Amino acid sequence: MLKLSLFGKIMVYILLAVYCLVILVPFFMMILNSLKSMRDIFMKPFSFPTKVLYDNYTKAWNQAGIGTGYRNSAFVAGVSVIGILIVSSMFAYAISKYEFKGRRFLFVYSMLGLAFPARLAIIPIFILLRNLTLTNSLFGLILIYTSVNIPFSVFLLKNFIDGVPNELSEAARIDGATPMQIYWKVVLPLVKPALSIVAIVSFVNVWNDFFFPLIFINDKSKATITLAVSIFFGEYSNQWPLLFSGLTLAIAPTIILFLLFSRQFITGMTQGAIK
């Protein structure tokens, strides 16, 4: 274990405090400006509001359709996370615990998704979804998000599954367990921390994404939360108070989710570091 001197500990605490400020100050300013008038934002952007305008949130909710955006984003993110967990865990289990021809190629091929962003292939993706009649569809977004999040998920889960002793699988097989039962009842319970990391990271990535909804969704009733908030960006002017209010409402679920599951996230990261 790394031991630090008193000076070293002080420097670590100072660096962590500076890092926290860098992360938290933009959130604080966003919330602060969401309660101001347009005049206050331009005249006193870094001060407290002269008059707190709580109705900015009501206006943002009604004008942008935040409720519809919540519902669509929750549906897309929830189904995508379930698909990511099922596909990536089964794939990681197969290439970790089974020997077959092309096993290494499949793993390397899946890792290429980490090197090449999906946005580079936006034209082929659009043509594919158009041929499947999945443009302007939430199921089209689910298909995209499930696909683009699999490489990272497989990489993380494989490392954890590699650490599961083969003796456990062999003992279960002797007791008459099928490969699916071994996967479901033996392997998955032992990699729950990794599954929680995959679920949280994937949910945040899907919830916060703006690029794919902008390209594929043109129906306001199917807009995700990020696309709904973009209504406050005008061609000639922006409604900054409502925009800040909408952004605050948009990020609130992800912050609440992380606070609720932060223990599982930190446990998974710690176990991954130890491995």
Question: How does this structure look, described?
Answer:
The protein has helices spanning 6-33, 38-43, 55-64, 66-97, 103-115, 122-131, 138-148, 150-162, 166-174, 179-190, 192-208, 211-216, 225-229, 240-274. It is mostly helical and 275 residues long. The longest helix has 35 residues, at 240-274. The radius of gyration is 23 Å and the shape is globular. The two termini are 15 Å apart. The mean pLDDT is 89.
Keywords:
14 helices, 275 residues, globular
* Count of alpha and pi helical runs: 14
Residue share in helices? Answer: over 70%
Count of extended strands: 0
* Shape summary: globular
Can you tell me the residue ranges where pLDDT is under 50 for at least 5 consecutive residues?
none
Secondary-structure element sequence?
HHHHHHHHHHHHHH
DSSP strand content: under 5%
Mean pLDDT score? 89
- Radius of gyration (CA) equals 23 Å
Which structural class should the secondary elements be placed in? mainly alpha
Distance between the termini: 15 Å
Major beta sheet summary: none
SSE topology sketch:
Blueprint: H1 6-33, H2 38-43, H3 55-64, H4 66-97, H5 103-115, H6 122-131, H7 138-148, H8 150-162, H9 166-174, H10 179-190, H11 192-208, H12 211-216, H13 225-229, H14 240-274
Summarize the structure.
The protein is an all-alpha fold and 275 residues long.
